[in-house]
Amino acid sequence: FQKGAPLPIRTETLQGSINIGSSGAALYFFRACSLSPLMRRRCPKLKKKSFAFGYSMIIAMALSWICLNFYNTVSLNVYIPAIAEELTVSTAPLLYMTTVGWVASCFVTIIGGRIIPKVGAKSVLCVSAIAEGVVFAGIGLSRNLLLTQSLIAVSSCLSVLYCQLTSVAIIANWFPRKKGVILGLVTSAIAIVTIVFLPLFSLTIAKQGITAAMCEWAGFIILYGIVGLFWIREYPAQVGLAPDNMPLTDKERAEFAASA
To answer: How many beta carbons lie within 10 A of that of residue 61, not counting itself?
Structure first.
Protein backbone atom coordinates (compact mmCIF):
# COMPACT_ATOMS: atom_id res chain seq x y z
CA PHE A 1 0.00 0.00 0.00
CA GLN A 2 1.03 3.61 -0.50
CA LYS A 3 1.07 5.79 2.59
CA GLY A 4 -2.32 7.38 3.10
CA ALA A 5 -3.97 5.28 0.41
CA PRO A 6 -7.33 3.69 1.25
CA LEU A 7 -7.42 0.01 2.05
CA PRO A 8 -8.60 -2.23 -0.77
CA ILE A 9 -12.06 -3.64 -0.28
CA ARG A 10 -11.13 -7.21 -1.15
CA THR A 11 -7.93 -9.15 -1.60
CA GLU A 12 -7.20 -12.68 -2.71
CA THR A 13 -4.88 -13.98 0.00
CA LEU A 14 -4.39 -17.38 1.55
CA GLN A 15 -7.74 -19.19 1.64
CA GLY A 16 -10.09 -17.25 -0.62
CA SER A 17 -11.31 -13.67 -0.45
CA ILE A 18 -11.42 -11.63 2.74
CA ASN A 19 -13.59 -8.55 3.07
CA ILE A 20 -11.07 -6.25 4.71
CA GLY A 21 -13.65 -3.70 5.74
CA SER A 22 -16.05 -6.21 7.26
CA SER A 23 -14.49 -6.52 10.71
CA GLY A 24 -11.47 -5.65 12.80
CA ALA A 25 -10.63 -9.35 13.10
CA ALA A 26 -10.40 -9.76 9.33
CA LEU A 27 -8.31 -6.60 9.07
CA TYR A 28 -5.91 -7.85 11.70
CA PHE A 29 -5.81 -11.26 10.02
CA PHE A 30 -4.80 -9.65 6.73
CA ARG A 31 -2.26 -7.42 8.45
CA ALA A 32 -0.58 -10.28 10.32
CA CYS A 33 -0.60 -12.76 7.46
CA SER A 34 0.68 -10.47 4.73
CA LEU A 35 3.92 -9.47 6.43
CA SER A 36 6.15 -12.31 5.21
CA PRO A 37 6.12 -15.89 3.87
CA LEU A 38 6.85 -17.10 7.42
CA MET A 39 3.84 -15.25 8.76
CA ARG A 40 1.65 -16.65 5.99
CA ARG A 41 2.65 -20.17 6.97
CA ARG A 42 1.63 -19.44 10.56
CA CYS A 43 -1.80 -18.06 9.59
CA PRO A 44 -4.05 -20.79 8.19
CA LYS A 45 -7.58 -20.16 7.00
CA LEU A 46 -9.98 -18.51 9.42
CA LYS A 47 -11.51 -20.95 11.88
CA LYS A 48 -14.55 -20.72 14.11
CA LYS A 49 -13.90 -18.05 16.73
CA SER A 50 -13.36 -19.12 20.32
CA PHE A 51 -12.83 -16.30 22.78
CA ALA A 52 -12.25 -18.87 25.51
CA PHE A 53 -9.32 -20.16 23.49
CA GLY A 54 -7.89 -16.65 23.39
CA TYR A 55 -7.97 -16.35 27.16
CA SER A 56 -6.50 -19.85 27.51
CA MET A 57 -3.25 -18.37 26.18
CA ILE A 58 -2.96 -16.57 29.53
CA ILE A 59 -3.00 -19.95 31.27
CA ALA A 60 -0.48 -21.35 28.79
CA MET A 61 1.95 -18.52 29.43
CA ALA A 62 1.36 -18.67 33.19
CA LEU A 63 2.47 -22.31 33.08
CA SER A 64 5.77 -21.28 31.50
CA TRP A 65 6.44 -18.91 34.41
CA ILE A 66 5.42 -21.61 36.89
CA CYS A 67 7.97 -23.91 35.27
CA LEU A 68 10.64 -21.21 35.40
CA ASN A 69 10.10 -20.62 39.09
CA PHE A 70 10.01 -24.31 39.93
CA TYR A 71 12.77 -25.82 37.78
CA ASN A 72 15.22 -22.92 37.91
CA THR A 73 14.59 -21.21 41.25
CA VAL A 74 12.86 -22.77 44.26
CA SER A 75 13.64 -26.43 43.52
CA LEU A 76 17.37 -25.68 43.63
CA ASN A 77 17.22 -25.41 47.42
CA VAL A 78 15.74 -28.90 47.58
CA TYR A 79 17.42 -31.00 44.93
CA ILE A 80 20.96 -29.58 45.02
CA PRO A 81 21.61 -30.68 48.64
CA ALA A 82 20.23 -34.12 47.76
CA ILE A 83 22.39 -34.35 44.63
CA ALA A 84 25.44 -33.15 46.56
CA GLU A 85 24.86 -35.91 49.10
CA GLU A 86 24.66 -38.50 46.32
CA LEU A 87 27.91 -37.20 44.80
CA THR A 88 29.53 -36.81 48.25
CA VAL A 89 30.48 -33.19 47.56
CA SER A 90 29.50 -29.87 49.08
CA THR A 91 26.66 -27.83 47.58
CA ALA A 92 29.01 -24.96 46.65
CA PRO A 93 30.27 -26.28 43.27
CA LEU A 94 26.70 -27.09 42.22
CA LEU A 95 25.16 -23.81 43.33
CA TYR A 96 27.99 -21.95 41.62
CA MET A 97 26.93 -23.44 38.28
CA THR A 98 23.52 -21.81 38.56
CA THR A 99 25.30 -18.45 38.54
CA VAL A 100 27.38 -19.52 35.55
CA GLY A 101 24.19 -20.57 33.81
CA TRP A 102 22.44 -17.26 34.43
CA VAL A 103 25.45 -15.34 33.11
CA ALA A 104 25.56 -17.56 30.02
CA SER A 105 21.82 -16.99 29.55
CA CYS A 106 22.61 -13.36 28.65
CA PHE A 107 24.24 -14.65 25.47
CA VAL A 108 21.45 -17.17 24.94
CA THR A 109 19.02 -14.24 25.06
CA ILE A 110 20.85 -12.55 22.19
CA ILE A 111 20.85 -15.76 20.15
CA GLY A 112 17.20 -16.43 21.00
CA GLY A 113 16.26 -12.94 19.90
CA ARG A 114 17.58 -13.78 16.45
CA ILE A 115 16.08 -17.25 16.25
CA ILE A 116 12.53 -16.45 17.42
CA PRO A 117 11.60 -14.19 14.44
CA LYS A 118 12.73 -16.95 12.08
CA VAL A 119 11.15 -20.06 13.61
CA GLY A 120 8.51 -18.57 15.90
CA ALA A 121 8.17 -18.07 19.66
CA LYS A 122 5.87 -21.07 20.02
CA SER A 123 8.39 -23.49 18.50
CA VAL A 124 11.23 -22.16 20.63
CA LEU A 125 9.09 -22.30 23.79
CA CYS A 126 7.88 -25.86 23.29
CA VAL A 127 11.17 -27.37 22.12
CA SER A 128 13.17 -25.72 24.92
CA ALA A 129 10.55 -26.81 27.50
CA ILE A 130 10.98 -30.42 26.38
CA ALA A 131 14.76 -29.97 26.49
CA GLU A 132 14.48 -28.57 30.03
CA GLY A 133 12.66 -31.71 31.12
CA VAL A 134 15.34 -33.94 29.63
CA VAL A 135 18.08 -31.89 31.32
CA PHE A 136 16.25 -31.92 34.67
CA ALA A 137 15.96 -35.70 34.55
CA GLY A 138 19.60 -35.90 33.53
CA ILE A 139 20.63 -33.98 36.66
CA GLY A 140 18.89 -36.59 38.79
CA LEU A 141 20.38 -39.52 36.88
CA SER A 142 23.95 -38.21 36.64
CA ARG A 143 26.56 -39.46 39.06
CA ASN A 144 29.41 -37.47 37.55
CA LEU A 145 30.20 -34.09 39.08
CA LEU A 146 31.30 -32.38 35.86
CA LEU A 147 28.26 -33.63 33.94
CA THR A 148 25.92 -32.57 36.72
CA GLN A 149 27.46 -29.10 36.85
CA SER A 150 27.11 -28.73 33.08
CA LEU A 151 23.45 -29.81 33.14
CA ILE A 152 22.64 -27.33 35.92
CA ALA A 153 24.14 -24.51 33.85
CA VAL A 154 22.27 -25.63 30.72
CA SER A 155 19.02 -25.72 32.70
CA SER A 156 19.46 -22.07 33.66
CA CYS A 157 20.13 -21.12 30.04
CA LEU A 158 17.02 -22.91 28.77
CA SER A 159 14.77 -20.94 31.11
CA VAL A 160 15.09 -17.76 29.05
CA LEU A 161 13.94 -19.69 25.97
CA TYR A 162 10.92 -21.54 27.32
CA CYS A 163 9.72 -18.61 29.41
CA GLN A 164 11.15 -15.12 29.51
CA LEU A 165 11.69 -14.41 25.82
CA THR A 166 8.91 -16.45 24.29
CA SER A 167 6.05 -15.95 26.73
CA VAL A 168 6.43 -12.17 26.67
CA ALA A 169 6.43 -12.20 22.84
CA ILE A 170 3.27 -14.30 22.66
CA ILE A 171 1.50 -12.17 25.27
CA ALA A 172 2.38 -9.03 23.28
CA ASN A 173 0.92 -10.63 20.14
CA TRP A 174 -2.33 -11.66 21.81
CA PHE A 175 -2.88 -8.69 24.13
CA PRO A 176 -1.04 -5.66 22.69
CA ARG A 177 -3.29 -3.14 24.48
CA LYS A 178 -3.22 -4.90 27.85
CA LYS A 179 0.12 -6.69 27.78
CA GLY A 180 1.28 -5.03 31.01
CA VAL A 181 -1.76 -6.21 32.98
CA ILE A 182 -1.70 -9.68 31.42
CA LEU A 183 2.02 -10.11 32.09
CA GLY A 184 1.40 -9.11 35.71
CA LEU A 185 -1.30 -11.78 36.02
CA VAL A 186 0.89 -14.38 34.35
CA THR A 187 3.93 -13.77 36.53
CA SER A 188 1.84 -13.75 39.71
CA ALA A 189 1.10 -17.42 39.03
CA ILE A 190 4.57 -18.31 40.34
CA ALA A 191 3.13 -18.15 43.87
CA ILE A 192 1.56 -21.55 43.15
CA VAL A 193 5.04 -23.07 43.05
CA THR A 194 5.87 -22.30 46.67
CA ILE A 195 2.40 -23.24 47.90
CA VAL A 196 1.84 -26.45 45.91
CA PHE A 197 4.75 -27.63 43.79
CA LEU A 198 7.61 -27.36 46.28
CA PRO A 199 5.91 -29.32 49.11
CA LEU A 200 4.90 -32.05 46.65
CA PHE A 201 8.42 -32.20 45.21
CA SER A 202 9.93 -32.52 48.69
CA LEU A 203 7.43 -35.25 49.53
CA THR A 204 8.31 -37.14 46.35
CA ILE A 205 12.02 -36.99 47.18
CA ALA A 206 11.37 -38.24 50.72
CA LYS A 207 9.32 -41.19 49.48
CA GLN A 208 11.06 -42.20 46.25
CA GLY A 209 14.54 -40.71 46.34
CA ILE A 210 16.11 -37.89 44.39
CA THR A 211 16.61 -39.77 41.11
CA ALA A 212 13.03 -41.00 40.77
CA ALA A 213 11.62 -37.68 41.95
CA MET A 214 13.53 -35.61 39.40
CA CYS A 215 12.63 -37.97 36.55
CA GLU A 216 8.96 -37.85 37.50
CA TRP A 217 8.85 -34.07 37.84
CA ALA A 218 10.72 -33.70 34.56
CA GLY A 219 7.66 -35.25 32.97
CA PHE A 220 5.56 -32.19 33.86
CA ILE A 221 7.49 -29.73 31.71
CA ILE A 222 7.99 -32.29 28.95
CA LEU A 223 4.23 -32.80 28.85
CA TYR A 224 3.75 -29.01 28.83
CA GLY A 225 6.05 -28.68 25.83
CA ILE A 226 4.34 -31.47 23.88
CA VAL A 227 0.81 -30.22 24.62
CA GLY A 228 1.93 -26.67 23.82
CA LEU A 229 2.80 -27.70 20.27
CA PHE A 230 -0.90 -28.36 19.67
CA TRP A 231 -2.38 -25.82 22.11
CA ILE A 232 -0.39 -22.60 21.86
CA ARG A 233 -0.95 -20.21 18.97
CA GLU A 234 1.50 -17.42 18.38
CA TYR A 235 -1.00 -14.96 16.91
CA PRO A 236 -4.76 -14.54 17.46
CA ALA A 237 -5.21 -14.34 13.68
CA GLN A 238 -4.34 -18.03 13.51
CA VAL A 239 -7.72 -18.85 15.07
CA GLY A 240 -9.64 -15.98 13.53
CA LEU A 241 -9.49 -13.71 16.58
CA ALA A 242 -8.53 -10.07 16.97
CA PRO A 243 -5.90 -8.83 19.44
CA ASP A 244 -7.19 -8.54 23.01
CA ASN A 245 -10.20 -10.63 21.90
CA MET A 246 -11.84 -7.51 20.48
CA PRO A 247 -12.10 -5.84 17.06
CA LEU A 248 -9.87 -2.96 16.06
CA THR A 249 -11.31 0.44 16.86
CA ASP A 250 -11.94 3.03 14.16
CA LYS A 251 -8.90 4.95 15.38
CA GLU A 252 -6.65 1.89 15.18
CA ARG A 253 -8.01 1.02 11.74
CA ALA A 254 -7.27 4.56 10.56
CA GLU A 255 -3.74 4.39 11.99
CA PHE A 256 -3.14 1.11 10.20
CA ALA A 257 -4.38 2.58 6.92
CA ALA A 258 -2.09 5.59 7.34
CA SER A 259 0.99 3.51 8.14
CA ALA A 260 0.43 0.73 5.58
So the answer is: 27
